[in-house]
């Protein structure tokens, strides 16, 4: 079996174009990028995939550090024969993209980090874990799951500034199991290990040592990337481009997709000299 066959993936766009890779966030999937990736089809050859423990990719019992995720991408690119790429990562994917860019810098022509900081944060981990624990899986039926996420869950997480968005996102991660019940699509233990390993230590030095062009993106109303942390990122990496997208929360590419796409097109035009 090839390494790539362990992953659910999609390659789209122009086979002759520059290579572009999108990494989804925690509990996400490659399909989350579909509306954004479509905007780059004419100029780029695009890879989206479910990272380990997510979606329909393999779910090992352990091995969910940023380095593990980065090594996956390295082996996938080796198999595809992609020597250099533009790399975009959201949230957890941004942390994994940072790790990849640090260790395989010669392969990254331009890096986009969307709404994630390099700091360690047990508070953020606790908030996400609480959201997961409030979901009473497994559900007996598809209808029971829909009822919970539509009418109950937003009230349970009313303290979140994006309760409705989180509810829809979590609901999309509930799938039918072989026994007919409906449970999480992702590896629950893998998600927890991902959060623990990703938040265990800060990565300010990793950010400081990036050599390629970098675009930092923050949503105006994001609580996952507080503005003081965003401002410090700009100070630590003064050569980076930085943009705060008005009207967006943590899921910038979902909340304000047109503005997010415009920022990426401008950035990659500078990196690759495309006609975007």
Question: Could you characterize what this model shows?
Answer:
The protein has 2 domains: 189 residues, Alpha/Beta hydrolase fold, catalytic domain (Rossmann fold), CATH 3.40.50; 70 residues, no CATH class. Helix content is 41%, strand content 17%. A 7-stranded mixed β-sheet has the order 1-3-2-4-5-8-9, with helices on both faces. The model has no long low-confidence stretch (mean pLDDT 95).
Shape: globular
Q: Structural class, from secondary structure content?
A: alpha/beta
Give me the side-by-side strand order of the main sheet. Answer: 1-3-2-4-5-8-9
How many domain modules?
A: 2
Major sheet summary line: 7 strands, mixed
Q: What name goes with the CATH superfamily of the largest domain?
A: Alpha/Beta hydrolase fold, catalytic domain
Strand content: 15-25%
Subunit organisation of the chains:
single chain
Low-confidence stretches: none
Count of separate DSSP helical elements? 11
Based on DSSP secondary structure assignment, what is the total number of beta strands? 9
CATH fold category name of the largest domain:
Rossmann fold
Average pLDDT, rounded to a whole number, is 95
Cα-atom radius of gyration: 18 Å
